[in-house]
Amino acid sequence: MAARTWVIDAANVVGARPDGWWRDRPGAAARLYARVLRLLAAAEWPADLAGQGEAPARVVLILEGAARAGVESGAVSPRTRPDDAGPDGRSSPDGETDGPSAAEVTLAVVHADGAGDDAIVAEAGDAEPPVLAFTSDRALRERLVEAGAHVRGAGALWALLDDT
Asked: What is the Cα–Cα distance from 44 to 48, expressed in whole angstroms?
């Protein structure tokens, strides 16, 4: 399954590595953001470590609490996705564009106003499917599956990040 949208539970992913993140939550959020940005900007997509053979079109990083001070909310496009289409940006014989292969990858940072889990479920439910969420929170995983998302643990995202 190549997910079109990723939703990342930043608090859970950061908390999966005991690297002192609790002393500087904004700094930990900024480091995770930088790592995700670097992954998405990679010239070549890393090995298929999370059941994801290609970069998603959109990644949503949910920040809550003190971590929100580490990264501004908003969206950036770290790179243009590889385009298998011809020079006119079209790849089908009828002249229609062939979907997301020509689109940019977008990394959006969302500051949760209340509970981060509620914002994560809302983003997953509103996103264009298929959706892949990264969290190891058992209760949140159940809610995400009910919302139609596929879920991988925080370690799967760290494996991708460590590969770039």
From this structure: 12
On whether the pTM is more than 0.85, the answer is no
Decide: 79 and 104 in contact? Cβ < 8 Å.
yes
CA-CA distances (angstroms) from residue 3 to 67, 94, 98, 124? Answer: 26, 26, 17, 12
Residue 52 confidence (pLDDT) = 61
Burial class, 114, CB count within 10 angstroms (exposed 0-12 / middle 13-18 / buried 19+): exposed
- Other Cβ atoms within 10 Å of 127 Cβ, number: 23
Residue 117's pLDDT is: 95
Extract the tokens encoding 82.
Answer: 């590889």
CA distances to 4, 35, 38 from 164, rounded to whole Å, are: 20, 8, 7
The residues, ordered by sequence, that sit 6+ positions from 93 with a Cβ below 8 Å of its Cβ are none
pLDDT reported for residue 47: 53
Question: Residue holding tokens 């908003």?
Answer: 74
Task: Please tell me the predicted confidence (pLDDT) of residue 87.
Answer: 38
CA-closest candidate to residue 56, choices 153, 154, 149, 146: 149
- Within the chain, which residues score under 50 in pLDDT? 49, 80-103
